[in-house]
Specification:
Catalytic activity: Fe(II)-heme o + 2 A + H2O = Fe(II)-heme a + 2 AH2
GO molecular function, one term: heme A synthase activity
Distance between the termini: 49 Å
Structural class: mainly alpha
Subcellular location: Membrane
Number of helices: 13
Membrane topology: Multi-pass membrane protein
Order of helices and strands: HHHHHHHHHHHHH
Pathway: Porphyrin-containing compound metabolism; heme A biosynthesis; heme A from heme O: step 1/1
Helix content: over 70%
Number of domains: 2
Strand content: under 5%
């Protein structure tokens, strides 16, 4: 410490002496030499460190986080599609227990399979609907539900483990930390809600002789929470990867943006109403289009009392509502497309809106074919997947039309 102070004092003193000598020196050559010496010494003295610490988060880390969120949203789509197939094959009630770790390994021996089958035989679905089911048939529906649950665990790990890693690396700012915590919390909630839904189909209902099924309310809540998780992940990922366009804020642009938000909300509501259709098997009630049994408005549309009950528990009303919402979504998307054609928009935004319109017509065609063909499983699963594709394109349109961050 003393040596350092002494060196600093000598250096400063010599520099002051050099400056004084330079001012009094009458030789031009010597004055220029002293000037160059002082300048080079000062440059070395004030030079910044050669390897400054990297600042995070930055553009590179944001791209990494954005791609991660898009990957997570893709896994959520897989869970939604697999859940739809599980519902269509009536496999969701095959696993009567819920264990976070224990059930990750399916039965291995014949004795284990017989024990699992025996547990299934104690519940209403076997007693009322599947009392003639064989063990090989049970294995099929068991593996369907098991695959759905394992995929859900994969989704959870895909959110939680990278969150811990990116957090420790400093990839998240304060706002992003709140978002990822919300997404991870939603994954846990989704898993609990899934078991709460399955539990409703395992309950004994002595007063009812209907086919055992999960509550349509819980099924809709389970699908709705999955769609919210997907939309939040997709939106956050897109806004981190796609730079916002420098759009001039005109009255027509503001109207287009509001129109796009309303259309996206209507598409979401239509997809959600499909859960009530699936939960009540409402697609098997009237299999004609555009009329329902030669009538525009069927006689049993409001057969239940009180009236509000029809919109959630009457299969006829549920199918009628889904038809109206589907046609309304198609009309809204068509209007959005025609309105956007009269405006100067970036190329990416035009492509997104055009694809949204094309998907809307494809989805309506899939829905009509599914209805007329009495809901075959492959076509119904494609129709359910189409609703997610349509919602994805609506989110992309909103991401392209968003305002520039200030």
């Amino acid at each position: 410490m003393l040596l350092t102070s002494l060196r600093t004092t000598i250096f400063c003193g010599c520099r002051c002496v050099s400056k004084g000598f330079q001012q009094n020196c009458r030789s031009p050559q010597l004055r220029r030499w002293l000037l160059r010496r002082n300048h080079s010494t000062f440059t070395v003295e004030t030079a910044a460190p050669s390897n400054p610490a990297a600042v995070v988060p930055n553009a590179a880390t944001n791209r990494i986080v954005g791609r991660w969120l898009l990957g997570c949203s893709g896994l959520v789509v897989g869970a939604i599609v697999l859940g739809g197939v599980t519902r269509l094959t009536e496999s969701g009630l095959s696993m009567v227990d819920w264990h976070l770790v224990k059930e990750m390994k399916p039965p291995q021996s014949e004795e284990e399979w017989q024990a699992e089958f025996s547990k299934y035989q104690q519940f209403p679905e076997f007693k009322i609907l599947n009392h003639q089911m064989t063990l090989p048939e049970f294995k099929f529906i068991f593996y369907m539900e098991w695959g759905h649950r394992m995929w859900g665990r994969l989704v959870g790990l895909a959110y939680i483990l990278p969150t811990v890693y990116f957090w420790r690396k400093g990839y998240f700012n304060r706002s992003m930390k709140g978002k990822v915590l919300g997404l991870c919390g939603f994954v846990f909630f989704q898993g609990l809600l899934g078991w709460y839904m399955v539990k409703s189909g395992l309950e004994e209902k002595p007063e009812s002789h209907d086919i055992p099924r999960v509550s349509q309310y819980r099924l809709t809540a389970h699908l709705g929470s999955a769609l919210l998780l997907y939309v939040a992940s997709l939106w956050t990922g897109l806004t981190m990867l796609l730079p916002a366009h420098k759009l001039t804020e005109t009255k027509r642009l503001i109207q287009l943006r509001r129109f796009a938000k309303g259309t996206g909300g209507l598409v979401f509501l239509t997809a959600l109403s499909g859960a009530f259709v699936a939960g009540l098997d409402a697609g098997l009630v009237y299999n004609s289009f555009p009329k329902m049994a030669e009538r525009w408005i069927p006689d049993d549309l409001l057969a239940f009392s009180p009236t509000i009950k029809n919109f959630f528990e009457n299969p006829t009303t549920v199918q009628f509502d889904h038809r109206i919402l589907g046609i309304s979504s198609l009309a809204a998307v068509t209007g959005l497309y025609l309105f956007s054609r009269r405006m100067m928009l970036p190329k990416r935004a035009k492509v997104a809106i055009s694809l949204l319109a094309a998907m809307a017509y494809t989805q309506v065609a899939l829905g009509i074919c599914t209805l007329l063909m009495y809901v075959p499983t492959p076509l119904a699963a494609t129709h359910q997947s189409g609703s997610v594709a349509l919602l994805s394109l609506a989110i992309w349109v909103l991401a392209e039309l968003r305002k520039m961050p200030k």
